[in-house]
Write a structure and sequence with these properties.
This protein is α+β, with helices and mostly antiparallel strands. It is 32% helix and 21% strand. It is built from six helices and eight strands. It is globular and about 45 Å long.
């Protein structure tokens, strides 16, 4: 297990002006959070409202509550796959074991199937980010929020192992219903 420290920033400083002009409806966010049983982090919701239903760096799919692959459906399907794939893994970090039932997939890398997950940090009651490597069950933990993770990925080019990078930082899903 590796751990990467955060580098604070803002979504707009990373990706430029918002690409989505209408945020998800409150009922769409409510449906996701009701299924989770808790609120999602504000920076994550802000990111999805402005830039979701897209591909980052050519390969990282980020679903939106009202996108072509709705966020709730994505989370439900990926959570099932995640738990099936990793429940027998030997080296699950203790912090992830302690939050196992609350781990939430929020993005998927289409190159190799790696999954970005959110999990509550019991030490400070904040959400953190981890990358679950699909091909060899291992985890890369990030210190900080979704914004911190995106700063490392997009600005500082700290890229998880095996992720190819394209210069296009943000690209809408071709069939996205969002404007």
């Amino acid at each position: 297990m590796q751990e990467v420290r955060s580098a604070p920033s803002s979504i707009e400083s990373l990706l430029g002006p918002r690409e989505r002009f209408r945020p998800a409806s409150p009922s769409a966010w409510h449906g996701v959070e009701e299924w989770l049983g808790r609120e999602l982090p504000a920076d994550y919701k802000d990111f999805m409202d402005g830039y979701g239903d897209a591909i980052l760096c050519g390969h990282l799919f980020t679903p939106h509550p009202e996108g072509s692959d709705p966020l709730l459906k994505f989370m439900q399907e990926e959570q099932r796959r995640f738990k099936e794939a990793y429940q027998e893994a030997r080296d699950i970090p203790a912090i992830l074991k302690s939050a196992w039932d609350e781990i939430i997939p929020w993005a998927c890398h289409d190159w190799n199937g790696d999954v970005c997950v959110l999990f509550p940090d019991p030490g400070n009651c904040q959400w953190r980010v981890a990358v679950a490597f699909r091909q060899c069950p291992e985890f890369l933990l990030f210190e900080g929020s979704v914004t911190d993770f995106l700063t490392l990925l997009l600005s500082e080019r700290i890229i998880p192992r095996g992720w190819p990078v394209r210069e296009t930082l943000w690209q809408s899903m071709p069939d996205s219903p969002l404007i």
